[in-house]
Amino acid sequence: MLPSPPTTRLAPSPTGPLHLGHARSFLLAWLHARSRSGRILLRIEDLDRERCKPHFTSLALADLAWLGLDWDGEPHIQSADTAPLESALAQLTSQGDAYPCLCSRAEIAANVARSPSAPHAGDELYYPGTCGKLTLRLPADVVPAWRFRCPDEEVSFNDELAGPQRFHPSREVGDFAIARRDGAIAYQLAVVVDDARAGVDEIVRGADLLPSTARQILLQRALGLPHPRWWHLPLVVGDDGKRLAKRDGGFALAELRARGVDPRAVVAWALASSGLDAPERVTAAEACGGFELARIARASARFGAAELERLLAARA
Ligand code: GLU
Question: Rounded to the nearest whole angstrom, what is the distance from the C-alpha of residue 16 to the centroid of ligand 1?
């Protein structure tokens, strides 16, 4: 029996211009859905009021259209529909799975510095559970952060591309935030609730989110939500071997677009850098035939000076 058509999504955060790493993940997610007559949704993850700018949402929509990627229905603007996120937070709180926290980032950092044995997870701070051990009396005008009471257990799951994974969130990050002190629901909770509401059953995204997946599994379990299938894509690295980031403005899609680069050359690079056969220029729609996400290379993709030069020479 053929697997049923997937529902997947593109979920950009409008915190900066999209770069080639996004182009590649979004193209592969789109091809995965469209080559199997599946659905693809667009969600704008704009809950972080400080970092998200409406200008970057318009830019992202223009970049996606330029790449030849479409989506089903209207884009879901996360900040315009927060009631279901708030009720998930209320559910976790009433179950005793979440508690309010008044620690500032500086206090958490200082605590970690005082206990050198505390583990770190990348640039995320480990939270030692300080407020979880207290009964806080919250003044009416104070908005606390909310943290998930992270069970002390290993979380293992299978990723369709990255293979078997094991994490231990309570040791790596501790009781992680699910709502912030500015009142915004945090990424980990928002993504779990909104994917489930939209019926997303296959998630295609960058391998930098593998550790987050373990946290999301714990939240799905606590909320009684189904687990989707995960396809975490190898990252794109530059000549220095470091992951491409939004700050690498030179590789912003908007800039390539402004310089008249042929988007078919970007699609061709995204395929070739994933170890797939591709002509020098190809549209996303043309690349659908015979596409299989399971066949992409597992090594990181490269985008350096030589690749940039090749793209810049490929004018529309
Ligand atoms: N909005 C997230 C990002 O841009 C993606 C989240 C996800 O795909 O789960 O990194």
Answer: 13
Query: pTM of the entire structure?
Result: 0.94
- Ligand 1 in contact with 204 (CB < 6 A)? no
| Closest residue to atom 5 of ligand 1, CA basis | 11
Number of domains in the chain: 2
Q: How many Å lie between the centroid of ligand 1 and the Cα of residue 14?
A: 10
| Predicted pLDDT of residue 187 | 97
Q: Which residues is 268 bridged to in the sheet? A: none
Ligand 1 within 6 A of 45 CB?
Answer: yes
Q: Which atom of ligand 1 is nearest to the CA of 9?
A: 8
Is 109 in the same domain as 255?
no
Q: 254-274 pLDDT, tens per residue?
A: 999 999 999 999 999 999 999
Residue 129's domain spans which residues? 83-188
Q: Does ligand 1 have an atom closer than 6 angstroms to the CB of 215?
A: no
Decide: 43 in ligand 1 pocket, CB within 6 A: no
Which numbered atom of ligand 1 lies nearest the CA of 195?
9
Do residue 67 and residue 136 come from a single domain? no
Q: Which mean pLDDT values do the consecutive 10-residue runs of the chain (316 residues) have?
A: 85 95 96 97 96 96 98 97 98 97 85 57 78 86 94 97 97 95 96 98 97 98 98 93 68 92 97 96 96 96 90 90
Give CA–CA dist 212/155, Å, rounded. Answer: 11
From ligand 1's centre to the CA of 179, what distance in Å?
17
Enumerate the H helices of the chain as residue ranges: 20-34, 54-67, 83-94, 105-114, 169-172, 187-197, 210-223, 253-258, 263-272, 284-287, 305-313
- HSE-up (13 A, CA, CB side) for residue 30: 26
Same domain? For 70 and 116 the reply is no
pLDDT on residue 244: 76
The pair of structure tokens assigned to 14 is 């409008």
Residues 180 and 87 in one domain: yes
CB 205 near ligand 1, within 6 Å = yes
Residue 220 placed within a domain: no
Pick from 115, 146, 112, 121: nearest CA to 131: 146
